[in-house]
Design a protein that fits this description.
alpha/beta; Rossmann fold; Arc Repressor Mutant, subunit A; 5-stranded parallel beta sheet; 4-stranded antiparallel beta sheet; 11 strands; 41% helix; globular
Length: 227
């Protein structure tokens, strides 16, 4: 797999790089948050291993920025912080797992396998080898943040792209309003907000202008992509 390791601790970075390479993975190293953000948003990776304590920004902030940019690559946070509040903060910010230092290398591999199995159970098959997503006549390229339907470009906002990407990753599966709020906005369910409904209405209008309806509102349950 192609891994992005964002870690500024030289000795640990070298150890992880060497061990992961020996396991057959291709590892790209970033030693600060800005470089990690640029790499993660412009290149396709299978996993991101992210340290919390970076020299230029918090790993929590970087994780949130990646999710804000609709980067759906699985993220495992590694950190010396073992406080429950920090673990919750990381997971709520979009991380898929949280591994406190020091940790056994075998545990990291096991957690990566566990996250990969969860992805497979959620039918992430639309993801192509280059990281792009293709469902029916929809094609999304995360490297250029471009979307086309039947070859025609579709202009979406970052949040609209985040919602659509979530639906494209699990075609035919109903994604609840709560899941959309958590994945795209990073908040828990709020019965007083209609932000999901507003963005889905805009998204459906843009997509359905170029072809048959493909985003279905399953009333009382959520939304699904039917292409």
């Amino acid at each position: 797999m192609k891994l992005l390791l964002i870690e500024d601790e030289v000795e640990l970075a070298a150890t992880l790089h060497r061990g992961l390479a020996q396991e057959g993975h291709k590892v790209t190293l970033a030693t600060d948050g800005a470089t990690g953000l640029e790499l993660a948003t412009n290149l396709a990776f299978d996993f991101i291993l992210l340290d919390v304590n970076l020299p230029d920004m918090s790993g929590f902030d970087l994780c949130s920025a990646l999710r804000e940019a609709a980067v759906a690559t699985p993220i495992i946070m590694v950190t010396a912080r073992d406080d429950v509040a920090d673990r919750i903060r990381g997971l709520k910010g979009g991380a898929d797992d949280y591994l406190p230092k020091p940790f056994a290398f075998e545990e990291l591999l096991a957690r990566m396998d566990a996250v990969k199995r969860r992805m497979e159970r959620h039918h992430f098959s639309p993801i192509q080898p280059d990281g792009s997503l293709t469902v029916g006549d929809l094609h999304f390229d995360p490297r250029t943040m471009t979307l086309t339907r039947a070859g025609s470009p579709v202009q979406l906002t970052v949040k609209e792209m985040g919602v659509l990407r979530l639906l494209m990753e699990s075609p035919g599966t109903v994604i609840s309003r709560t899941e959309i709020l958590r994945a795209v906005w990073g908040i828990e369910d709020d019965p007083l907000t209609n932000i999901v409904e507003v963005y889905l209405s805009r998204l459906r209008r843009k997509l359905h202008a170029l072809g048959p309806p493909i985003v279905e509102n399953v009333r009382g349950f959520g939304y699904r992509l039917t292409a």
